[in-house]
Amino acid sequence: DSPEIKEEVLRKDDRFLTLLKDVYVESRDPPVRVKDGGGEHLPCKQEEKRLTKLGHLEALDVKKVPKGKISIVEALTLLNNHKLQPQIWTAEKIAAEYSLELKEVNSLLEFFIPFTVQEFPKETKKAIISNKQKKLT
Fold first, then answer.
1. Which residues, in sequence order, are CB contacts of 74 under 8 Å at separation 6+?
2. pTM higher than 0.70 for the full model?
């Protein structure tokens, strides 16, 4: 706000102007370099796909999956087949049928078990209901 500062800012200094005329700046763009991780979003190779083996459940699931993977419906189907007929649907057969690695199939069969529905006889239901009706004191 002071007039002295404004005057000092607006005043030209001849000595600095002559020094500024001697300055020469040369600028060049650096050569373009491709980053090593530049192709992260592009697939390195085309993934091999296979058609799913769904049978009558075809409308419920995807039509193609990458090799080495299975769909949810396929997983449930192969787990159920193994549970019902373990002699026929061995880990080796499942691995060959679905293009999976044997160690992954063994892990799948060990850690994932399909649910079983159990229906209780009617007399058991009555016994359970009668116990609930009693008041606890």
1. 52, 53, 54, 61, 65, 98
2. no
Residue 76: name the closest of 109, 101, 50, 49 by CA.
109
Q: Are 41 and 78 in contact (CB under 8 A)?
A: no
Amino acid making up residue 5 = I
**105 contacts 94 by C-beta, under 8 angstroms:** yes
Instruction: Tell me the three state secondary structure of residue 30.
Output: coil
The DSSP secondary-structure symbol of 32 reads P
Please, which residues have CB within 8 angstroms of residue 106's CB and are 6 or more apart in sequence? 91
Going 38 to 41 to 42 to 46, the CA torsion angle's sign is: positive
In tens digits, the chain (137 residues) has pLDDT values of 788 888 888 888 888 888 888 888 888 888 877 666 555 555 555 566 665 665 555 555 567 778 888 888 888 888 988 999 999 999 999 999 888 999 999 999 999 888 777 777 766 555 555 555 555 55
User: Can you list the alpha helix ranges (DSSP code H) found in 33-121?
Assistant: 72-84, 91-98, 102-111
Paired strand residues for 51: 64
Residue 47: CB partners within 8 Å, gap ≥ 6? Answer: 66, 67
